Amino acid sequence: MRKIKKGDDVVVLTGKDRGKRGTVLRVLDRDHLVVEGANRVKKHQRPNPMKGVTGGIVDKEMPIHISNVALFNPIAKKSDRVGIRVLEDGKRVRFYKSNGEVVDV
Asked: For residues 85 and 19, what is the distance between their CA atoms, to the nearest angstrom?
């Protein structure tokens, strides 16, 4: 089970976008994910008439390492670490380390 999944609300902990909040758009591999509004770069893109893509300078979200983000805890109104707990029925759930509240039921 992954500690951070697609659609989670996260806070960026380090880098030029420190403190920004956004949702996880994609999980690329074991260590990288794309966060909405974080790690934006300007990319020079060539036109591709086959795909209908116009050329120019576009803003694009680039991948960020999973260790540089933390899940946002709406109860505490701040970022929080996440653990995995096994319930009595054998189901695995994520929980916030600070208060033990379950993230997804």
From this structure: 28
CA–CA distance, 66 with 72 (Å, rounded to integer): 14
pLDDT at 90 over 70: yes
* Domain CATH number, residue 55: 2.30.30.30
- The string of pLDDT tens digits covering residues 53-79 is 999 999 999 999 999 999 999 999 999
Q: How many domains does the chain divide into?
A: 1
CA distance 16 to 2: 25
Tokens of 87: 């319930």
CA dist 12 → 22, 45, 88 (Å): 8, 27, 33
- pLDDT tens for 35-51 read 999 999 999 999 999 99
Domain range holding 50? 9-75
